[in-house]
Design brief:
Blueprint (H helix, E strand, L loop, with lengths): L13 E5 L7 H12 L6 E5 L1 H11 L4 H10 L1 H4 L6 H11 L7 H10 L11 E8 L4 E5 L5 H7 L9 E3 L2 E4 L9 H6 L4 E5 L14 H22 L6 E4 L22 H19 L14
Parallel strand pairs: 1-2, 1-7, 2-3, 7-8
Antiparallel strand pairs: 3-4, 3-6, 5-6
Helix pairs in contact: 1-3, 1-10, 2-3
């Protein structure tokens, strides 16, 4: 019998949902640390884009995940997948006409630091989402090869190339399900912890400047599914949206500075402090719940 995947086995009691957000995903590491220190551990992990990468590391080895992610995020010089020079970016765009960076650096990072090559090798049940171009919709991955699924989930349009899997081409999962709370509930989770990057902590307002029009339009597209999912949460399901401590303004220029990793440590620590306070105030320390089985 094949090992169970995210859609197999008993319904999970606790799920972690890790949203997308590029370099701002460092905040999720601080949230993980706060959760781990309080003995809160998931049976299911779902991730989108950078949340898929963070989530895969967590699902591979929950006991070492925070230390591994802190090392990855803070060692910028060695681990930046967007380190290409302007000349290399121009060359890549001239050759492909669709993107500025190849995904070879990100692939190398995953092969080096992720101790699993397939979903079935992970310790926890895990799934990630990408946007299928041909289907014009979400495609969830929870079995088979892991690395290509993660590359598909993180394929930011215009920055990274679409990833072909089984004859379909895929772009960043944030296009279709940026914070997949609804998916966790569909799979049976009764308690959901949302690890997010800070955008949803700021309510949207009408644009007043020319550059805000596009940014706000993007935010609506990015948030609407999460907003609808939160409105439909059943009464018997708990959803905890962990705070970052430093909410991002959706129209801030930092939204497009995708290579600026100068505030990584600050983001991790701020999210840790804010989430630790939230958990201590609002969440009872759970009884130990065994991990979902990985062998049949």
């Amino acid at each position: 019998m094949s090992p169970p995947t995210a859609t197999d086995g008993p319904p999970p009691e606790v799920a972690f949902v890790l949203g997308g957000g590029g370099i701002h995903g460092a905040a999720e590491v601080g949230m993980m640390r706060a959760l781990a220190e309080r003995g809160i551990r998931p049976q299911l992990v779902l991730g989108t884009s950078i949340g898929a990468l963070n989530g895969a590391v967590l699902a591979a080895d929950p006991d070492l995940a925070v230390d591994r992610l802190c090392a990855l995020w803070t060692n910028v010089a060695a681990n930046n997948p967007f380190e290409a020079s302007l000349l290399e970016q121009a060359s890549t765009f001239a050759r492909t006409r669709t993107h500025l960076h190849g995904n070879h650096r990100l692939r190398r990072l995953l092969l080096t630091h992720l101790p699993a090559r397939s979903f079935e090798e992970l310790t926890l049940r895990f799934a990630c989402v990408a946007a299928s171009i041909e289907r014009a919709g979400a495609r969830w991955f929870d079995r088979g090869p892991l690395i290509d699924a993660l590359l598909a989930s993180t394929a930011v349009p215009g920055l990274l190339p679409p990833v072909e899997i089984d004859g379909e081409h895929h772009l960043d999962g944030g296009l279709v399900d940026s914070i997949p709370v609804g998916r966790a509930i569909e799979l049976g989770a009764r308690v959901v912890y949302v690890l997010q990057v800070g955008r949803i902590e700021q309510p949207l307002t009408a644009p007043t400047k020319p550059w805000e029009v596009g940014l706000i339009a993007f935010e609506i597209a990015r948030r609407h599914r999460f907003v609808e999912a939160m409105e439909r949460v059943p009464n018997d399901v708990e959803v905890h949206v962990l705070p970052t401590g430093t909410p991002m303004h959706y129209a801030d220029a930092s939204q497009v500075r995708y290579r600026d990793l100068s505030r990584v440590t600050e983001r991790i620590e701020s999210a840790y402090q804010a989430s630790a306070e939230y958990l201590d105030d609002r969440v009872a320390i759970p009884l130990a719940v065994p991990d979902a089985p990985r062998t049949g």
